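Backbone-to-sequence.
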């Protein structure tokens, strides 16, 4: 199998996993993170703590919809865990922060190219024609009726997972 074929397969696997997790479970930050874990076989106890912390990163953080897209945050968290500085290396003489930021810059650019933004409610505007305040039960019903967990947020999570795998493979980190 060529490296390009492997890359294509892993990107497709990441997209499909992220899409399926968002459709079944919701919680975009955790769904993209889990898809990346599965695709790149990154399972260890410390990864579970990051997964757990991403509970708060759904629906624009705490389902408020005015913060960053949870899929974007989950993907950035994955990159940080893979490459970022550790607490024991707070001084960061190797500038791991900058290397991680360079990866996130690439993800940021992909979000901007596709959606024009990284914020949840603005992505809603692109996907559904308007933002939803999903903490409100009536708004949540409308959000779901607009396709949030059929084709909307599911595809955003799939894209974030796919793009992250591509970025990591291109950087030689996966």
């Amino acid at each position: 199998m060529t490296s390009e074929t492997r890359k294509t397969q892993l990107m497709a696997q990441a997209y499909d996993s992220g899409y399926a997790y968002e459709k079944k479970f919701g919680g975009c930050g955790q769904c993209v993170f889990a898809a990346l874990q599965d695709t790149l076989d990154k399972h260890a106890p410390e990864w579970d703590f990051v997964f757990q912390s991403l509970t708060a990163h759904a629906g624009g953080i705490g389902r408020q919809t005015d913060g960053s897209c949870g899929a974007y945050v989950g993907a950035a968290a994955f990159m940080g865990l893979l490459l970022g500085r550790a607490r024991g290396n707070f001084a960061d003489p190797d500038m791991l922060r900058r290397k991680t930021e360079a990866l996130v810059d690439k993800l940021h650019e992909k979000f901007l190219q596709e959606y024009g933004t990284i914020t949840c409610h603005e992505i809603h505007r692109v996907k559904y024609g308007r933002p939803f305040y999903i903490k409100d039960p009536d708004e949540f019903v409308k959000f779901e009726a607009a396709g949030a967990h059929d084709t909307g947020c599911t595809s955003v999570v799939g894209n974030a997972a796919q793009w992250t795998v591509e970025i990591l493979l291109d950087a030689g980190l996966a």
